[in-house]
Amino acid sequence: MATQFPVVISTTLTLLEKFQATLASPTTATAQAPSKDANASAEADTTTNALPLLSNSAAVLKSQVTKLSLLAITAPFTHSAVSTVLRACNESVLPSLVTAALLVTPAGYTQAFHTEILLLVKTALVEFSTLVRDVKGIAETKDLAKRERDAKKEKEGEISKIEKDAVMVAVGRVWDACDAVTEVAGKGVVGFVMRRVEQWRDLVKDAVEELEDWDPEEDDEFFDELMGEEKGDDNDDDDEDEDEEEDTAALQENKKSTLRFIKPIAQVYPAILTNRLKNAGDKPLSSTAGIAKLESLMINLQSIPDQVDEAAGALYENNWSKAAEYLKKTQKNAAQAVNSVSSPWIVSEIAEGEQQPADKFATWSKMWLKVMDEVSKPIDAAVSE
């Protein structure tokens, strides 16, 4: 084995371990917002440059990984060539990637985006570490075989299929991890938020469709068949039938009230996507208030799908008061989400005496709040009982 190769590859693995640890627990200084006055220009530079740097670093790592894999699986194994690729990773590619990830602070990009970037970059480092270890194993195998060949004066052979497959699988995983970093960085914070909102929208939509398909009468028929052998005399049966009919009617009414309540909540997602996130660009990131709005928006919209599921589950169990409690929680979160973005990201300045132009979403949000007040009456009654 070439003299420098063990040192270089050991350095790579050590750096990867340290960088993973750094991303797992970024320093308090990194996570805190910079001073508004002293660091205003630095904050602007960070917002402008962090994502392009992140995307470029991931693309360069992918390129270096391709070179490394070809050098590792192609005979003869050249230690110096492999060392050159690893040095480039150690000296520039890996530090740039990690630095870019740490520049994506919660204060400048929201907590959710910050967490996502750290996770994606850490995944890329973990997968790259696996590849480097596979290359190290191939080098050790080659060095052992070389000593045996030198004694027999034989030429170097190809690496085994198992080793080649292991390298190619590791390469594929690094590529996927780098592509994920590039994709998220390329779409930016608003693109990331849009994807999450779409996911939560689909969950709520699925819950509504499942609730629409649910028939309380079918549940009663199933229960009757299950308990058929334990029925009492005819009078008791008549009383039970009447009670079951009342329960079923109540369930049907509660189902109807729940659907009337949830459907306007489900409309919040597409309304916000269309009117506040689509074509927003970097406007939400232009101020701390805009970033705070994004934070609030995600927190509230993320909570709704689970609460809808809990409400539906309680309704299936014929626990209307419990269902109503969860529905009120969804109303609170939906209202907070709507109110957090009720005004445009950037309000244009107008001359004194002139009125602000009407905003479509602001008008819609007022109507939505009125609709929710109306459809929540049965829910309010159940909660107050």
UniProtKB/TrEMBL annotation:
Biased composition (Acidic residues): 228-248
Keywords: Coiled coil, Signal
Domain called Cyclin-D1-binding protein 1-like N-terminal: residue spans: 55-216
Membrane-spanning intervals of the chain: none
UniProt region (Disordered), positions on chain: 228-253
Signal peptide range: 1-24
Gene3D superfamilies registered for this protein in UniProt: I/LWEQ domain
Annotated GO CC locations: nucleus
Coiled-coil residue windows: 138-165
Name of the protein described by the UniProt record: Cyclin-D1-binding protein 1-like N-terminal domain-containing protein
Record InterPro entries: GCIP-like (IPR026907), GCIP-like_N (IPR049317)
Pfam families in the cross-refs: GCIP_N
